[in-house]
Write a structure and sequence with these properties.
2 domains, 10 helices, alpha+beta, two-stranded antiparallel sheet, Aminoglycoside 3'-phosphotransferase, Chain: A, domain 2
């Protein structure tokens, strides 16, 4: 650990412009899909996240992009190889309404097209953000098709279910609903990727691109329910189309494929095969 800290401490000190030494460490791997934790020190604690994809630059660029629009994200400190360093935030009980408001505020940022000028990661998986002409084309070619290939190649998705997903992809122009404005997204907006600090709600583990705002909304309660106050507060800032509930599982399908690719043989991942099958039936 001492040898590892010898690389981290100078990076933090250079960022602060003052000496910094770690005095302890809290492991947070049980709260995340990646190895992470907090190095304690003065005058600030430092959150460290190991990117299993091996590349921290996309996340740093994503944080910088959101910060440029005034969206609250943790302050980047720097990186040491595949380790991303951020200023740690004091966490308090979830402000569910605040989560809805900050997501609605993010969704006020619009672009000229769907995608982004740099790629990212969705968990450990690469995320292709190359622009596409319209939302159904982007969702098919940059999300569902690549993730379907990865799920099949992993050996965790059988041919029959894969064929069902392919049929859904073919129907996307009829399933995607009204054409949305290209909207700046969190990119992985499940509830654990928001942190309520003493001064408000921050976005964590961002993987941004310009897409359909319903994708972020569908991810909010992807793993566990959120209270109605979250969606009510979002509506105070941005509208939710009445057709969203019928499309919710369509937007979650990409996430289901990602989980099956990475964890499809585990007790956690196996139920997602059933969710994919349910989505295929719903949108056949």
């Amino acid at each position: 650990m001492r040898e590892f800290l010898a690389r981290i401490e100078p990076v933090v000190a250079a960022h602060l412009g003052a000496p910094w030494r770690a005095t302890g460490f809290t492991d947070l791997r049980d709260r995340a899909s990646h190895r992470c934790g907090i190095f304690h020190g003065s005058p600030t604690d430092v959150f460290a996240k190991l990117n299993t994809g091996g590349e921290t630059s996309p996340e740093l660029r994503g944080l910088s992009l959101l910060r440029s629009f005034g969206v609250p994200v943790p302050e980047p400190i720097g990186r040491v190889g595949a380790l991303l360093l951020l200023r740690a935030l004091p966490e308090i009980t979830n402000d569910w309404a605040g989560i809805g408001r900050v997501l609605g505020t993010l969704h006020q940022v619009h672009g000229e097209g769907f995608g982004l000028d740099f790629d990212g990661f969705f968990g450990p998986l690469p995320q292709n953000n190359r622009p596409a002409a319209d939302w159904p084309s982007f969702y098919a070619s940059r999300r569902l098709l690549p993730l379907l290939r990865l799920a099949v190649d992993s050996g965790n998705l059988d041919a029959a279910l894969a064929a069902g997903v392919s049929r859904v992809i073919d129907r996307l122009p009829r399933l995607c609903g009204p054409a949305p404005l290209p909207t700046l997204l969190h990119g992985d907006a499940q509830q654990n990727n928001f942190l309520t600090a003493t001064d408000g709600v921050y976005l964590l583990d961002v993987s941004p691109y310009y897409g359909h705002p319903e994708v972020d909304l569908a991810m909010l309660d992807y793993f566990a329910p959120v209270p109605p106050a979250t969606f009510d507060a979002y509506r105070e800032v941005a509208p939710i189309d009445p057709g969203f509930p019928a499309r919710r599982e369509l937007w979650r399908l990409a996430g289901y494929l990602a989980v099956v690719t990475v964890d499809g043989t585990s007790a956690f991942g196996r139920p997602f095969l059933g969710r994919i099958a349910d989505a295929v039936r719903q949108y056949r």
